[in-house]
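Minutes, methods subgroup
Present: GH (chair), OT, SY

1. OT presented the first of two proteins processed in the latest run. Sequence and structure tokens recorded below as shown on screen.
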Amino acid sequence: AISPGGIRLGTSALTTRGLNKEDFSYVGNLLHRSIQLCIEVQNKVGKKLKDFKNEIENNQEIIEKINILKNDVNLFANKFEFYE
């Protein structure tokens, strides 16, 4: 828990929402993009969480990249019904 090293993805929840094989590939692409963005920030500021947070809160270029990714995630997710 101190140094996590993976992503846990609830595939059952995604199939319940109607995702198919191609959709899972797109989800993988979104995850890859987010990891690449984090690596970009970490390579610039190092491994301290406070420096990472400061960079993503104050670097306009990073904020724009996050917003693009966030928009892509929301557009994709909104195609699928959400069950409560």
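2. SY then presented the second protein from the same run.
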Amino acid sequence: QKRFAEAKRHFEKAGDLAMQNPEALPMVLETYLATKDLSVPERVTQQLMTANDPDPQLVFQVGLLLGRYGKSREAVAAFERIRERYPDRQALLLNLSAAQLEQGDANRAIQNLESLVNAHSVNPEVYLLLGEAYDKAGLAEKGYAAFNRAIEVAPKSEEGYLALSNFASAHQNNSFGLKTIERGLQQIPGSSKLLFQQGVLWALESNLEAAAQSFQMASQTDTAWGLPLLASGIVQLQAAKPQQAASTFRKAMGKLPGDYGPSYFLGTALTRAGAQSDPTQQKEVIVAFLNAVSLDPTNSQSRVALGQAYLATNQILPAVVELEKALQLDPRDSTALYQVGLAYRKQGRAREAETVLRRFQ
């Protein structure tokens, strides 16, 4: 149920029954990784790496978890430990290569993946990962060929078309990316993922009307997916339609309850629509930015926007609190520096205002 804090309390009370039980160990390990308590993962990893004959299946599961939670170095070590013993060689080398890519070791990942291709693999995941590895190693032509091969192997899978179009866009060729998506839509008509990607590429090409149409179709195809709605609202903002965007962001909030984005952009849209002249909308702006901050307290942009909203309503003290927190998160945020300088002046803190504004300059 992903209630990791509660799970951790029970595992701690269970003691050795949890910590030394091979069947429970992956769940115990994920609980501690999810709660950012590395004491147990480090101990478990060390025990597995020094054991004379660790269970390959258990080590593999541990490697998967370490990779999922960003511990790529430890994941590589776990997979290497059972390299010659794990029965599913393809699964092992795929996950080992993914962890190596996370570490920035594209060349070793290429060696592992090419050994699977030489074994006549027809798994599209091999070619998708190989294309990413080639690209990171600066071998763009080989990357293109690998992504194209992934499409040939699985023409009814969205992943190949998405990967190749992303590759094309990263190499400043959005037009080829759009052609790739069209090719995918011929094979998978009405794919919400492909329609969404099409909208992103049209937006990058500054064709906001075409982007809006693609996002709308993606949203209609998958009504539960909130991301196309969020993207539609951003396009409406870019097209100088803030009231329409605000309405879209309100809908997106219901479909993306854990995402700060819809709330942040709702506050932005209302501000651009002239909320400063309407006390009711001013309150909605502050509530929107407060919600964005509560959903992601580490995002400095949301705190800057909330500080500005407080300043606009002459609430100087809470404005200073938010702007100072934003600067703690990003000391080089020029907007936060300028706004906190203005706020200090309003508080009569002239010397501090001068220091901050000098930093801004």
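Chair's summary of item 2: The mean pLDDT is 94.
Next meeting: continue with the remaining queue.
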